[in-house]
Amino acid sequence: MTPMPSVLREYALLADGERGALIGPMGDIAWLCFPGWADPAVLASLIGGRGTYAITPRGRYVWGGSYEPGSLIWRSRWVTESGIVESREALAFPGDPDRAVILRRVQAVAGEARVDVVCAMAGDYGRAPARALKCEDDVWHGRVGDNRFAWHGSGAAAPADGGGLHLELKLAPGQTHDFVLTLGGEPTGVDPEAAWSATESAWQETVPEFDFRLAQRDARHARAVLRGLTSSKGGMVAAATMSLPERARQGRSYDYRYAWVRDQAMVGQAAACAGAEDILDSATGFLCARLLDDGPKMAPAYTVAGGRVPDEEQLGLAGYPGGTDVVGNHANEQFQLDAFGEALLCFAAADACDRLDAEDWRAVQVAVSAIEERRHDAGAGIWELDDAHWTHSQLICAAGLRQISRRPTAGGNAGEWLALADDLVATAGSAIFPTGRWQRSPQDDRIDAALLFAGIRGATEPDDPRALATIELALDVPAIDSDRSTSLASDLTWLAASVAAVTSVFWASRAPATIDPAVEVPTAESVRSTSAESVLT
Length: 537
What we know:
- About 35% of the residues lie in helices and about 20% in strands.
- By secondary structure, it is of the alpha+beta class.
- The chain has three domains: about 10-205, Beta-galactosidase, Chain A, domain 5; about 210-430, Alpha/alpha barrel (Glycosyltransferase); about 430-535, no CATH class.
- Strand 1 (about 10-15) and strand 2 (about 20-25) form a beta hairpin.
- Helix 5 crosses helix 6 (about 340-350).
């Protein structure tokens, strides 16, 4: 039986860099694409397709779970009427682009455990059930789409009436049982102990402990998530999933299994600050390749390997409740000027860490030329809306030009790049509201949350009157109504808190291990009760 979908916050992400899986509170892996992020799902119950791989306790239980520190190894935990059952879950890490290995270790922590185990894969988003099922030497084999799979530890399973394989597992107190599901590649055996040990070691090496104390657990987990979403080909997907609704029944269900240039650049900048050189190098490498390949025609998003994002289409599935079943993304036809500015900001941060080479600097030149060539072209902007001359796009390009011009390697180009930055800010000056703040575009006088970045990220000085006026309004939500921006009030309130949170993480990343506990790090509430000028300066 296919499990009912759960609230999204109750799913845990397993990822190995090449693909990701979502596991729900019933021990159900409800989403997995194979072989890569943007390929068709073989477990698709999340969006109404067939395909699930579930380990679920029998009888009544309450659910919980947690990640092992600095990793995407998840422990599902159920308290039943007779004891406690856990299932340790992971995609073997680091991932192989052509082969996925799903590790699941069930343990009767307290009392006897009785669990139902169902493995029912179906290719093409659940529209092509697994076939050629056969059991050899206590291992079930079969094919899903064009790929072979092998399910180790499943010798007691039998074909289920509704398709797939089912078994009832009984464990004595303290006993464990390993399941290993391999997809693709040669159907060779996998030693569970060796696979678990290699995965644990790889995560520990990839996500070491930070040398500061503030929010260390959250910072390490964030780094693990970013690494889990980053392919060996360099691209980092925006999300492991597709078609999940941003708002129920609002027509905002998108496929985010692709690498957005802007996201890559922002993650690269954060990685530079945190000293995560592997993530930084992946980001700059991906940006460099896209700029050198496509120049001023660089798309906003690509597959993780640098391919074209497919056009949007629907699959004919029910979709996640409140959403649809859209595959592909309309950003593939857009132009987003700000992506070039974000790329320059990332390159500047990477150069400060001594991580750029000659090819990267060639990409810098391409990005600058693209800004100069296309600065007057209307584009979709950061929010991917109808084409317009968005103020944020002009300002973030100016910020990127200023930051990269400060790097010693810029040499004699610095003056020319700074002049272009000044010209972009002057052009943006045509989009000023009567109160002196920035507005979205010359034709759209509303405030835009992204405009808060103008002074923060270097497009202007932090104490620029336009930047201060914009932040003053963002921190004074009641004033938004009188400024004809009621529809953005909730977004701006959220952004004020987000800026505070980012500020706190930045402080934490800069803090020494012996930080004085009496030093107060800014919070969202303290930011909202502080003047805009003091926040910026």
